[in-house]
Amino acid sequence: MMRRAQLYLWSEARTHHIALHEFYVEQMRSRILSQFDDLEGQADRHTEEAYQRMSQAPGYNEIDMADIAEAAYDKGNAHYQALTDLRKQMLLGGLAGMFHQWDKTVREHLERELRHDFDGDKIEKEIWKAPVADVMDVFEQFGWPVKALPCYAKIDAMQLVVNVYKHGKGRSLNQLAELYGEYVRDPIRQWMPKGMAFGLDHEWLIVTDEHFGQFADAIRDFWQDMPERLYFDLSTASS
């Protein structure tokens, strides 16, 4: 008699995972990223405030007003750049949180389901220490070709983006530039002689609001596309 292991995604669990993810995305946009809307307007107001402050300081009559205006403009420009950098950090931090929420939920789902048919202690250790690609291989073994789905490429790219955000230069940056170059701004390669080697800089990492939305859609699609029941033939595995 054939014995099969099963991965079962209950419909209520699927709904819960998607709802939790969409709540996170909506809150990131409405509570955090929205505070950085109209950066140019915020910078202009900062410039005006700096101009008013400096033009009313003691001894301002002895200073050329054009110099005051230029100094105020520089302060406004610096404020704009600081806000732009901060927004990028908030966006990347939000992306990291979104990825880790998905990663932990997938591992919890697998551990819970695999415990029905395999050694629980071993499953726990293996599932939680395995790279994401290996975790996806478990689904592949159960008959779901998740790595062939469009959502997987986005999730793979998202993990590399998060790794670069956390660790800077290294293997993840090299892989990101090679596999998903749209997330690495490359201001130098176009001017360099063909074939000349050069180092990548983690500061070239770029993630836009559009990218954030694409990553969010990929996670939603992952849960939507996962079959309700997946099976693995244990008799074949033990032979």
Layout of strands and helices, then pairs:
Layout: E1 4-8, H1 11-32, H2 39-55, H3 65-114, H4 120-129, H5 132-141, H6 150-167, H7 171-179, H8 209-225, E2 229-233, H9 234-238
Helix pairs in contact: 1-3, 1-8, 2-3, 3-4, 3-6, 3-8, 6-7, 6-8
Number of strands: 2
Work out the helicity level: 55-70%
Strand content: under 5%
What is the overall pLDDT average? 87
Task: Count every helix, treating DSSP H or I runs of 4 or more residues as helices.
Answer: 9
Radius of gyration (CA) equals 25 Å
The H-and-E topology, N to C, reads as: EHHHHHHHHEH
Order of strands, widest sheet: 1-2
Low-confidence stretches: none
Largest sheet geometry: 2 strands, antiparallel
Distance between the termini: 14 Å
Which structural category fits the helices and strands?
Answer: mainly alpha
Gross morphology: elongated
Descriptive notes:
It is built from nine helices and two strands; from the N terminus they run E-H-H-H-H-H-H-H-H-E-H. It has 239 residues and is mainly alpha-helical. The chain has a two-stranded antiparallel ribbon with strand order 1-2. Helix 1 (11-32) runs antiparallel to helix 3 (65-114) and helix 6 (150-167) crosses helix 8 (209-225). The radius of gyration is 25 Å and the shape is elongated.
